Hints:
With 355 residues, the protein is an alpha/beta fold. It has helices at 18-31, 44-47, 66-69, 73-77, 92-101, 114-124, 148-155, 195-211, 245-251, 261-266, 272-279, 308-317, 320-337, 340-354; strands at 2-6, 35-41, 59-63, 82-86, 107-111, 140-143, 162-164, 185-190, 217-220, 234-237, 252-257, 284-286.
Amino acid sequence: MKIVFFGLTITSAWGNGHATTYRSLIKALASRGHHVVFIERDAEWYRNNRDLPEPDFCTLLLYDDWQQFHPTLRSICVDADVIVIGSYFADTTLVSQQLTDAGIGPLLFYDIDTPITLAALRISGRTDYLEAASIPMFGAYLSFSGGPALRELETRFGARRAVPFYCSVDPDVYRPVPIRPEYRCDLSYLGTYAADRQRKLLQFLIAPAALLPDREYIVAGAMYPPGAIPHSNIRCITHVSPPDHPAFYSSARFTLNITRDDMVAAGYSPSVRLFEASACGACVLSDDWAGLDDFFTPGEQILLPRNEHDVTDILLNLTDEQRVRIGRSARERTLAHHSSAQRALEFEAIVSSLR
Length: 355
């Protein structure tokens, strides 16, 4: 198949989870013989922080201004077997309307941010990247959230078909690797600063760092304001590039997953970081939310502390044998159900069903 993606970015993983998500899926699709074209706006933020400027598994097209670029749209898409428009792609409304008017399709919407999308749609009927009126144009709505969100997309917002399409990991990239001294610590966290995650970061990492000052901690991510990480035993790293993610996850005794408030409210919304850490065999501590046990078995494949005292108890008392066993079990489950190869097969099935 020829598959055309319009997405936020595939060239830069700086401050977003979209790039590694697209890379994982599209690399797997390419390995199955599909020709993939990826189109992204040449935004300054990503232009200055590109860690994959020339992906070898797809054809990359960058544009500055849609008014200048859109005349080439038809020639790019007219022979496509399917066209996918992703969340946070700024020109979704223009692309979907122009392709629909030209009778070019089928169109899929790939929502890597379903909880955020739904929260905005409920309030105003639109987001910066999607209007509620555009949703029925898509043959299928691929959602990062399962559970009740799928029914709401269909019954309230007119999605023809809402299907769960979770993030995935490339097992060739995300796997256990030797410990790197610069990432060695007792508890790590990888994530861009977000105000709604800061309370949980305080509870599950910053407070334990105060209670156990002889242990080492790392917070890796951009945009943390001054004073957000207050303790000297917490090392701060502005950015860990995707090729270094496996070493980051493999070098900490435990790693922390924190979920955005909108994702918690929606439930059934695993983040790509959760699967990536698990694929590396990391023993993950996470906040709890509805549907999490659909992906990992608590106590056997993931740990769900309730407060800072639970975290300190884990750091002090869980043996290395227990920790390794939990990480290994989580890795096995992730590779069985959430690998990029598995997701590529699901994508093919969705496209086939549209025909």
